[in-house]
Design goal:
The chain is mainly α. It is about 65% helix and about 0% strand. It has helices at about 20-25, 35-45, 50-65, 70-75, 120-160, 160-175, 180-190, 200-215, 220-230, 235-245, 250-255, 260-285, 295-305, 310-340.
């Protein structure tokens, strides 16, 4: 018969009851684990159904834009071919250059119909138009956010003459009527590099749009960051960092910047959809992207010409743009509420 377990050393034998041991472990107090602000924000965000659905829709749009060439290849069409002139599709357009069939020529071959007058595939035009607008908006938003954060933090932290002159520069750019400035200045930017007799390359138009929108897009965030830094630079933890001998760069990077991430992130979620609308506006009025570059604004411009004969052509790009902008704005509200639950809806 097996003898009971003995404790090590010279003491008497002690039988260990397994049930008693398990009860002893259960009676021990559980260790409480703290959660970081990021984890708390994520928990609050996951409980917001509107924010989660909006995030899924936004991610879906970006995924479709990134995979546009793959989807178009699987679909078997592209946004540049004039299918009405192809021998395989002899009856896409009628005698008035309008799509034959109902709903703008929708069929198994052309899911969203065909473009009036030219006969291009609307589905792939929408895919590549989303790709153009979203990529451009992301670049402009990144440049505007970085510029606004740097200028706002420098002015708010150093104050004095630095803040005064940076404030006057900000006021100067805010004085420009942005929409009119876009229309007037875009041809000037392109004319600096290309002769008026030559066709402006698409990449140059993209660079010009990015530059103009960047120059006129950072001021609102700079003012927001400046006001936040002004309220933080006199706080105790900033004074303690100064006393400890930390450099201004380290104080700004380690002490102030982490405390203003929330307004920067929320404001960025409002800048991006506004940028998309502005890019579409520029193409709509003819100073942004031109044929044959697929773009949301170009599709709206063509739709405005033929909406009486073919209202379906404007339906799909219009619905896509409204859904994306709405979901991105709702996502911005949800992110704000997750960071600061006191502002919850």
């Amino acid at each position: 018969m097996t003898s009971p377990t003995k404790a090590e050393g010279s003491g008497p034998s002690v039988a260990l009851d397994p049930e008693l041991a398990s009860n002893t472990e259960a009676d021990k107090p559980k260790k409480l684990e703290g959660r970081s602000p990021g984890q708390l924000m994520w928990q609050r965000f996951k409980r917001d159904r509107t924010g989660v659905v909006s995030a899924v829709v936004v991610i879906f749009f970006f995924a479709v834009a990134a995979l546009a060439p793959v989807i178009a290849k699987l679909y078997g069409k592209d946004p540049y071919t004039l299918y009405a002139q192809e021998p395989d599709y002899p009856f896409l357009l009628d005698d008035f250059a309008m799509p034959t069939g109902s709903f703008g020529g929708m069929s198994g071959d052309f899911w969203f119909g065909v473009e009036p007058k030219l006969g291009r595939d609307v589905f792939t035009m929408l895919l590549y138009g989303m790709r153009t607008s979203l990529y451009m908006a992301v670049i402009v938003t990144l440049f505007s956010v970085v510029t606004g954060v740097i200028i706002g933090m420098v002015g708010g932290y150093f104050g004095g003459r630095v803040d005064y002159w940076l404030g006057r520069v900000t006021d100067f750019f805010l004085a420009f009527p942005s929409q009119l400035f876009f229309i007037a200045f875009m041809p000037i930017v392109t004319a600096l590099f290309v002769s008026p007799r030559d066709e402006t390359p698409t990449y140059l138009r993209a660079v010009a749009i990015i530059l103009v929108m960047w120059v006129l897009g950072w001021m609102g965030l700079a003012r927001l960051v400046r006001s936040s830094v002004l309220s933080l630079r006199e706080r105790e933890f900033v004074e303690a960092a100064k006393v400890s001998g930390a450099s201004p760069a380290r104080i700004v990077r380690k002490e102030i910047l982490p405390n203003i991430v929330t307004p920067i992130l929320v404001q960025s979620t409002y800048i991006l959809p506004s940028t998309i609308l502005t890019i579409a506006f520029l193409s709509f009025v003819g100073v942004g992207f031109v044929e044959p570059t697929p773009d949301w604004g170009r599709m709206f411009a063509r739709g405005a010409e033929v909406y009486e004969q073919d209202p379906t052509f404007m339906f799909f790009p219009g619905v896509a743009l409204v859904i994306f902008v709405l979901c991105f704005n709702l996502l911005g509200d949800s992110v704000r509420d997750a960071f600061d639950p006191k502002t919850g809806r």
